[in-house]
Specification:
By secondary structure, the protein is an alpha/beta fold. 42% of the residues lie in helices and 16% in strands. The protein has an eight-stranded mixed beta sheet, with helices on both faces. Strands 11-10-9-12-13-14 form a six-stranded parallel beta sheet, sandwiched between helices. The protein is globular, with a radius of gyration of 21 Å. The two termini are 18 Å apart.
Length: 405
């Protein structure tokens, strides 16, 4: 089967599939490392995969796409305007015309490759480009557009308006889509009313490298805690987690907190905020690093603290549990309870004192060891790449058959 994967793909995440040195390639589009996991499994099964993504470091021309290739794999980078609101040379800001330039570029690249079926990820520009090709398709919904827009309503006005305009894009997708999946029962229920077609629940695959690090763990008096937050934004809710760690130091003065993601690097928002609060002790600000390096670093840590208010799935949670790291996360944070499956790990993540109590409880030696072992078993049973891809392959065949009938 010739399968088209359309979504955010960073070069760093698929470099191992391209072969050779990728230093001269565009950066691609970060935020979807799970797509590299999906592509790798499809190739391993003998399928040909053509992937399509956007990159904002390319010339803004209709013929500005770049194609990179590996065994049974090609990745087409389509130019994306860097600025959302301001002019990009002679082109409008990308949100002002609802990504028309990017959608047209993706559509053209897809039609040139002409795969048997398309699998688009997220319900915005990648899905709209896929639907415009009229090719058989599966669209995976990774977030609730209305929820994301509401959570951004307390943010900067331009960011809030940006998200509400994205809702318009999503509604176009939901109105036209023929085959759609959601990454969790929570996400299915959040968007069920937006489409007339049934929504299948197919979870995200956990990177096999995470399972490669699987190791039942024991705690220590100097626990090393990870927080992975992609952006200093309201729904990621980092402040209570940071304050909770500073309280934890009163009981465990040798504890460490390692912070990853955009805005969490040296001198960035998170560190500046922590310095202003006088709570920077024991914190290490790593910032954005490639996905495989985060997995490698998490393997040397002991616990994941994930204070996000809302998660449609929670890939980093699943990866941490697959490695054997217990997780402290939100009791009402979207799909998190379904994913974690152990209510005792969950708490009110808006209250730093409650988070601290949950950390201390989770780090109790006997409890910690039990959570570590059960987390590995749960992830292996539910979210291996093979299990997820089996479900998608069936949906691809159904999509092709629907068009042919």
């Amino acid at each position: 089967m010739h399968i088209g994967i359309v979504g955010p793909i960073a070069t760093a995440d698929v470099q191992h599939l391209l072969g050779g040195n990728a230093n001269q390639l565009p950066l691609g589009y970060s935020g979807g490392p799970l797509l590299a996991t999906l592509v790798g499994e499809l190739i391993a099964r003998g399928h040909t995969v053509s992937a399509f993504t956007l990159s904002n470091d390319l010339p803004l021309r209709k013929d500005g796409s770049v194609v990179a290739s590996g065994p049974n794999f090609s990745l087409t980078y389509v130019p994306m305007r860097p600025r959302a609101w301001q002019f990009n040379g002679w082109l409008l800001g990308r949100i002002l015309d609802l990504y028309r330039f990017e959608i047209d570029g993706l559509k053209h690249a897809i039609l040139q490759a002409n795969p048997d079926v398309l699998h688009a990820h997220w319900v915005y520009e990648f899905a709209l480009a896929s639907l415009q090709t009229k090719l058989p398709h599966v669209v995976t919904c990774h977030d609730s557009p209305y929820t994301i827009a509401r959570l951004n309503s307390t943010s900067r006005p331009t960011r809030s308006l940006y998200r509400w305009l994205r809702v318009i894009m999503a509604l176009k997708t939901f109105n036209r889509v023929q085959c759609i999946t959601a990454v969790s029962p929570y996400m299915r229920d959040m968007v069920r009313s937006l489409t007339h077609v049934p929504i299948a629940v197919v979870p995200n695959p956990v990177d096999e490298r995470a399972f490669g690090y699987a190791n039942p763990r024991v705690t220590s008096i100097s626990p090393r805690i990870a927080m992975v937050c992609n952006g200093w934004v309201a729904w990621k809710n980092p402040q209570p987690g940071l304050l909770a760690f500073s309280q934890l130091l009163q009981t465990m003065p040798l504890a460490e907190l390692h912070l990853y993601g955009a805005d969490f690097g040296p001198g960035q928002y998170a560190q500046t905020w922590c310095i202003s609060k006088g709570i920077v002790k024991g914190m290490f600000f790593h910032g954005s690093i490639p996905h495989h390096l985060i997995l490698n670093e998490m393997n040397n840590l002991d616990l994941l603290l994930h204070p996000s208010i809302e998660e449609s799935f929670g890939v980093v949670i699943a990866e941490a549990m697959a490695m054997g790291l217990p997780v402290v996360a939100g009791r009402t944070s979207g799909a998190v309870p379904w994913l974690v499956g152990d209510d005792a790990c969950l708490c009110d993540i808006t209250d730093p004192s409650i988070i601290t109590s949950s950390l201390l409880s989770t780090l109790e030696p006997e409890r910690y060891a039990d959570l570590s072992k059960r987390g590995i078993a749960s992830m292996r049973r539910r979210f291996t790449t093979a299990t997820v891809v089996d479900q998608f392959i069936r949906l691809y065949a159904q999509a092709i058959g629907r068009v042919g009938s």
